[in-house]
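Researcher: I'd like a candidate sequence for this fold, 755 residues long. If you have to choose between options at a position, lean toward the conservative one.
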């Protein structure tokens, strides 16, 4: 398996030329990197005007590996080839590094780039990516991979310290400015001259990276001729959050050349409009475009201390979302929560995050705080509410569960209303975490919950109530991971172990570790509430002096109870109603939707998510009305279809080009992609939107009938796809800006070509 690494943007608040002067001092060897034994210049070339300067070195490393492993491998040192391409006119340095030792067994490839900050030409940005592919290594593949990734992570941190060290050294020597390169008068043509191989005594040539084992398998790139062809290019957009009122906010204003240390790097953050200048502070807006990049200070200020590999996982997952979800993507804090919930396993985190995004979109959860109107019975009898914050700055939520009439609330409101209310609490918690991050000047991504169980008894074990509680826990665990920082359970009675036995299996193990349980009045002693909550805000009902607005609860009047029939219909109206529909697609059994157009120049719009598998999306036109849809094509064979919905409209006897025609080129959509698009109709008639299974080349030419094809492949789970879609027909004059719920207005947000 190929291990990959992608760094955040690291910003040095020094001009490019000064950073290059510091960087050149790392060679021929660097005492700050003990494993870097030395380097030899293999070749050096420079244009006549001095604009382009390319250097190739062979670096010798003493890798910190077990002695036994070195003896088995038969080497004491590892050699890397590194090539630098400096463009003084564009003020960029591209660096490529790959291993020479064991190159037939291990492929290590690294790409780095120094460039000018896009918003402040007095600052310098640094980016780094790498990959590691271990083919074979004497049976020690796993050991070598761990050693490589560990040393690479440590070298990344060391690299920043080294640049800072040499910048300070230059300052001590009185070198605070290096003039920019200017083209010579007369405009001499560019040509290169190759210098003979020189020893490591070269001190004026541009140098290459000295990082150790990085990850690799990227194709080689010739840097001398085309340094800008590298995957890492100069930054296009680095936007900074504005938070003028936040004490201690990193990345504040610093004019070019001001006396700031290189560790005070600029902040990067997504934004819907033009990026603010680096001195404009911090802003919490989040839209996400592929050009937006995270910088190291922003990560530390808003997301916390992450290891280099954790930073890489965040950046790569975020980039994947930007490519596949063309509309709104989650904020960085939320993406990080899903990564933490799966121990930074990117594949597992991506799976549960995509499922959560589909769920949020289907049920319009993003608009819950705006649209949800809390019923009066919840205002009066739901014994929970927000109450200041704990000592760590986390929002504090108090729930007096022992005083809550769970049976009465379920009978009066139903499970769906309770679930929606709990979701609104979680959405409010996310909002409060963002606010507290600004107020306290440090990352706050979770909250503390205080649960008072005084009054808990057997009536709280009413089976429908426990069922509702378990369902709520299941939904919250799936869609709000790593939001609970600490759970304080106070005054637990004897009946609590019974409830805990029922509930605990549905709670994630990492979440259970955050539970602190106090029986009786134990919470008042050492190690109790005062260790986590300031004494001044301990609620009055727990012996404190702070008045708490959480309702005292009580029994819900039976006059407010509703019949099961009323609750069932209300649940459908409140929760399961959605503008989106789900459909399954099999190999040989596409799903098709009929759209009848009366007036030409109408606009057919669509929005769909590919929840599973890869599909091909087509639009057809026919003057003939299709036959009534044929649902469940497997039923004729005595098989119950596992699909929730699969409709086919195009008759097998129809001929493409005669009975119906394709009006747009097919669009292949990968699993996880979110697609919005539109088509302006040219003729009235019947339009058919079709999602079909994306056949591989080897099986695309099958001649089996549709149903037989499905029967032949039913045992292969990969031959089933699932989409969630919404379509709408608009008049051309009403089209632009009308799809407000579908992301960017108009065709600009479409994920399509030619649609």
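Model: Candidate sequence:
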């Amino acid at each position: 398996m190929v291990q990959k690494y992608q760094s955040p943007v690291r910003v040095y608040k020094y001009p490019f030329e000064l950073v290059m002067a510091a960087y050149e001092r790392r060679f021929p060897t660097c005492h700050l990197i003990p494993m870097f034994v030395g380097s030899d210049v293999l070749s050096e070339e420079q244009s006549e005007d001095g604009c382009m300067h390319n250097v190739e070195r062979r670096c010798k490393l003493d890798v910190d590996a077990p002695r036994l492993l070195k003896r088995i491998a038969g080497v004491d040192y590892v050699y890397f080839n590194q090539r630098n391409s400096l463009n003084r006119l564009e003020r960029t340095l591209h660096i490529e590094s790959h291993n020479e030792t064991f190159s037939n067994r291990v492929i290590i490839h690294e790409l780095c780039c120094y460039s000018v900050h896009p918003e402040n030409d007095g600052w310098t940005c640094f980016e780094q990516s790498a990959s590691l592919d271990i083919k074979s290594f004497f049976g020690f593949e796993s050991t070598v991979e761990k050693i490589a990734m560990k040393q690479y992570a440590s070298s990344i941190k060391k690299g920043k310290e080294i640049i800072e060290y040499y910048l300070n050294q230059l300052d001590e020597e009185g070198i605070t400015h290096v003039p920019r390169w200017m083209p010579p008068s007369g405009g001499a043509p560019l040509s290169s001259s190759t210098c003979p191989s020189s020893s490591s005594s070269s001190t004026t040539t541009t140098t290459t990276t000295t990082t150790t084992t990085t990850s690799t398998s990227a194709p080689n790139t010739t840097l001398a001729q085309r340094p800008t062809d590298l995957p890492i290019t100069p930054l296009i957009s680095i936007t900074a959050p504005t938070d003028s009122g936040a004490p201690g906010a990193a990345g504040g204003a610093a004019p070019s050349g001001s006396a700031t240390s290189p560790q005070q790097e600029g902040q990067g953050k997504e934004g819907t409009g033009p990026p603010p200048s680096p001195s404009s502070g911090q802003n919490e807006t989040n839209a996400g475009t592929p050009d937006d990049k995270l910088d190291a200070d922003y990560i530390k200020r808003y997301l916390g201390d992450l290891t280099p590999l954790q930073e890489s996982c965040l950046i790569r997952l975020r980039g994947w979302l930007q490519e596949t979800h063309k509309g709104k993507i989650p904020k960085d804090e939320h993406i990080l929560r899903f990564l933490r919930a799966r121990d930074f396993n990117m594949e597992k985190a991506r799976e549960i995050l995509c499922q959560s995004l589909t769920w949020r979109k289907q049920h319009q959860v993003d608009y819950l705080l705006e649209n949800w109107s809390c019923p009066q019975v919840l205002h009066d009898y739901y014994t929970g509410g927000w109450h200041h914050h704990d000592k760590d700055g986390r929002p504090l939520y108090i729930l007096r569960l022992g005083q809550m009439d769970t049976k009465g609330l379920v009978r009066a409101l139903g499970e769906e209303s309770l679930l929606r209310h709990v979701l609104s609490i979680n959405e409010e918690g996310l909002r409060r975490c963002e606010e507290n991050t600004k107020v306290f000047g440090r990352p706050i991504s979770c909250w503390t919950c205080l649960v008072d169980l005084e009054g808990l008894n057997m009536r709280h074990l009413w089976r429908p109530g426990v069922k509702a509680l378990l369902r709520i826990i299941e939904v919250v665990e799936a869609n709000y991971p790593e939001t609970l920082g600490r759970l304080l359970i106070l005054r637990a009675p004897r009946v609590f172990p019974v409830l805990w036995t029922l509930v605990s299996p549905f709670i994630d193990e990492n979440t259970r570790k955050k539970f602190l349980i106090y029986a009786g009045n134990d919470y008042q002693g050492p190690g109790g509430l005062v260790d986590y909550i300031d004494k001044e805000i301990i609620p009055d009902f727990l012996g404190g002096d702070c008045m708490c607005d959480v309702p005292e609860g009580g029994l819900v009047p039976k006059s407010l109870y509703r019949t099961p029939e009323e609750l069932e219909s209300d649940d459908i109206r409140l929760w399961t109603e959605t503008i989106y529909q789900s459909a399954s697609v099999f190999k040989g059994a596409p799903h098709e939707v009929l759209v009848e157009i009366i007036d030409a120049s109408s606009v057919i719009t669509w929005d769909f998510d590919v929840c599973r598998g890869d599909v091909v999306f087509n639009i057809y036109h026919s003057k003939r009305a299709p036959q009534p849809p044929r649902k469940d094509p497997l039923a004729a064979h005595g098989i119950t279809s596992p699909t929730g919905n699969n409709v086919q409209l195009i008759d097998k006897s129809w001929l493409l080009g005669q009975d119906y025609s394709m009006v747009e080129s097919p669009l292949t959509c990968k699993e996880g992609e979110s697609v919005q698009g539109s088509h302006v109709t040219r003729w009235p008639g019947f339009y058919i939107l079709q999602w079909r299974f994306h056949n591989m080349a080897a099986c695309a030419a099958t001649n089996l009938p549709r149903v037989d094809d499905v029967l032949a492949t039913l045992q292969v789970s990969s031959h089933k796809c699932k989409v969630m879609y919404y379509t709408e027909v608009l008049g051309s004059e009403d089209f632009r800006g009308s799809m407000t719920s579908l992301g960017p207005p108009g065709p600009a947000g479409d994920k399509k070509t030619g649609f």
